[in-house]
Amino acid sequence: MPTPARRPLYARVLKWTLRIVSALLLLFVAINAMMSFRSSDAATQKTFAEKGISVQIHRIPFSGGELRYVETGLQTDSTPLILFVHGAPGSGNNFYKYLSDSLLTAKYRLISIDRPGYGYSNYGQSEPRFRVQAEAVKAVLDRYRPSKTLLVGHSFGGPVIAQVALDYPAQVQALLMLAPVNDPDSEPVPWYAGLARWRLTRWMLSKAWQVSGDEKFAHVEELRRLQPRWQELRIPVTHWHGASDFLAPPRENLDFSRRHIPSEWLIIKYLPKGSHFIPFTDFEEVRAELLKW
Known about the structure:
Helix content is 39%, strand content 17%. It has 11 helices and 8 strands. Residues 21-35 have low confidence and may be disordered. It folds into 2 domains: 8-36; 38-291, Rossmann fold (3-Layer(aba) Sandwich), CATH 3.40.50.1820.
């Protein structure tokens, strides 16, 4: 009986290549589906209960849907307020460690929001306009009468909190920007952001990654629209940046702040060992900065 002819080498290599690529694609989709970057109400309650911290979860109407934010700390109207704004992708849970810190909760009212499009704030509905993102923050601020308000923004949250301070100056007394992406001329667009643009690949991404991609491709235009207004700031603006930040180039973004924010209001802190993820990797230093306010 004749021996069956073996397939050519290139056909066998192609077959196994397709199998490996298919397996990797399925793994990518499965992992990405779990990367929603958000914490449910139940998970949030559990996180704070385990640390003995009382937490309030709020949902307020916004832009035809709702905006969710989490609150801890002191509850009197005269209490200073610190409000945290996350980057992209992300959600209010990025700052749960701060909201559950006993030193901070003993001194301030602490709020962390799910920005529009993320967490449980119109999840999956992209809203890349800084103006509308600022309106979301204002919708929360309007519910309180603090003695003073500090906004903390990480990455994409940096220009968002600047927009809030510029549009609603009476409601903001200071800004702390952690690894902000402020400079339109050095705004990096990583290759994977393109996956959110192409129909062929967008479906593979979680809604958080889709929204992040939409924001990324609108970011330069939004930054250029904001650029002439930085000089209008008349409150303390503290800008922290890490030397090894590969998502928000440190030299370019620090130079941008020096050129566009009035020097009498700008405080810069350069972290020689810092990365883009300052809120997570430099918690003690950030907390100490907050406690000085």
